[in-house]
Amino acid sequence: MKLIGLLMIALSALLINKPASAQMYDPRYPVCLRTYGVLIGDRMDCNFTSLDQCQASADGLSATCLLNPYFAPRAIRPHKSGR
Fold this sequence. Notes:
By secondary structure, this protein is α+β, with helices and mostly antiparallel strands. The chain has helices spanning 2-16, 51-58; strands spanning 31-35, 43-48, 63-67. Strands 2-1-3 form a three-stranded antiparallel β-sheet, with helices on one face. The protein is flat.
């Protein structure tokens, strides 16, 4: 019985220590800001609608603006007239 308890604790410890996986690229926005450095870490923020907007946010940081490879523009629906 103690062996089963120890195995369960060991298994839960392995599962808890698993790194979190998240999508780094938000498909709703065409431009991403990649920041890197000791103080701010390494991360990717994809929440910019233009390169100019991204570059303004990157000003003064160790950062690079990139085009989002997973950008999925919304399909434009044709306008239906009321007649």
